Amino acid sequence: MPQLNPNPWFTIMLLTWFTFSLIIQPKLLSFTSPNKPMNKPTATKPTPWTWPWT
């Protein structure tokens, strides 16, 4: 069963991982978001439910 032989697949996985982390990831992280995050409004505390039987 060839899928149990890790020789070619492990090398391919390592090369892919190094390519992503050394080349692609820094290019993706260099982009900046065009929209600045907005401040979230403070959450208001909900009013408690009034149960008719209490």
UniProtKB/TrEMBL annotation:
Membrane-spanning intervals of the chain: 6-24
One GO CC term on file: mitochondrial membrane
Low complexity bias (residue ranges): 40-54
Pfam family membership, one: ATP-synt_8
Annotated stretches, region: Disordered: 35-54
Subcellular location(s) of the protein: Mitochondrion membrane
Any GO BP: proton motive force-driven ATP synthesis
Keyword Magnesium: no
Topology within the bilayer: Single-pass membrane protein
Gene Ontology molecular function: any one: proton transmembrane transporter activity
The family this protein is said to belong to: Belongs to the ATPase protein 8 family.
Listed name of the protein: ATP synthase complex subunit 8
